[in-house]
Design brief:
The chain starts with a helix and ends in a 15-residue tail after the last strand. It has a five-stranded mixed beta sheet with strand order 2-1-5-3-4, covered by helices on one side. Helices cover about 20% and strands about 20% of the residues. By secondary structure, it is an alpha+beta fold. Its main location: cytoplasm.
């Protein structure tokens, strides 16, 4: 009978629902930890209810940089109200009846604390180590020297190429970026005419051609200034203060001639899509 009862208790323990991947011990509690000098909530920490307040402070000091003598601990409920001060260093945490989800707030009374004035959160306050180019060039086993050696062996060496070789996959050299020439898209531009209706790909926007030519401030070659039927553009017919055509704000756009098709593109009437009633 005893063995049967033991098996029942064991089965209930194993199959009991749990909020985590492991059963939480009855003598522990999970608390949200906040700090008077830190903007963000630190973390959720699990504490043993038998730990003294002094031991609690020593554990927390490793997380926040506040020395235990400078700490004042408070327990807050879920709404942040009703602070209970943990005043007695020799009382156990369980004496204050904390429960899962409560907030344990750390007040740091040390004006010279590591956590004061943002020293643990604002990285701009930390002095950065800067090595001179001369000192770096004297160091051995640097990436710079490794790269120089590899490029002596193979002028086309790149880190990407070496990674492909290590993985045993073919390396495809990227094509050199083409610089737009002054006559690019000239042929496509000749097929278009200012004042004609058009459609623009790939978005299928409709409008009227207002300008054909080159545009200062954009890559070389020919552009088409289009006045859209709807406010789907990026400008009012001007680029960097220079006007090429006139239209309302956000109705104008400049696109490459190969993206513009001239033809019968009537303005879309939303009423055409409605059923008769």
């Amino acid at each position: 009978m005893v063995a049967t009862e033991d098996m029942r208790v064991l089965r209930e323990y194993v199959t009991a629902p749990s909020s985590g991947s492991q059963q939480q011990a009855e003598s522990t509690v999970v608390l949200h930890v906040t700090h008077s000098n830190l903007k963000l909530q630190m973390m959720e920490l699990r504490f043993d209810l038998h730990t003294s307040v002094k031991g609690l402070k020593e554990k927390l000091s490793t997380h926040c940089g506040t020395s235990p003598p400078a700490m004042v601990l408070q327990l807050l409920d879920s709404s942040g109200q009703g602070p209970v001060a943990l005043q007695d260093d020799y009382r156990q945490l369980g004496y204050y009846s904390p429960y899962d989800g409560q907030t344990l707030h750390i007040m740091d009374l040390d004006p010279h604390s590591f956590s004061a004035h943002g020293w643990l959160e604002d990285t701009s306050k930390v002095e950065k180590f800067v090595m001179s180019d001369e000192a770096y060039s004297q160091r051995e086993n640097t990436y710079k020297k490794y790269k120089e050696q590899k490029q002596k062996e193979d002028p086309d060496w790149t880190a990407e190429k070496e990674l492909c070789q290590r993985r045993g996959v073919p390396y495809v050299k990227p094509e050199a970026k083409k610089t737009a020439g002054e006559d690019d898209f000239a042929g496509e531009a000749e097929l278009l005419e200012v004042g004609q209706r058009c459609g623009c790909t790939p978005a299928g926007r409709r409008g009227t051609i207002r300008y054909i030519g080159k545009v200062d401030g954009l890559p070389g070659g020919f552009w088409v200034g289009v006045e859209y039927d709807e406010p789907l553009g990026k400008n009012d017919g001007s680029v960097k203060g220079k006007r090429y055509f006139q239209c309302s704000s956000n109705y104008g756009s400049f696109v490459r001639p190969d993206k513009v098709e001239m033809g019968d593109f009537p303005a879309i009437d939303e009423l055409d899509d409605l059923d008769e009633i």
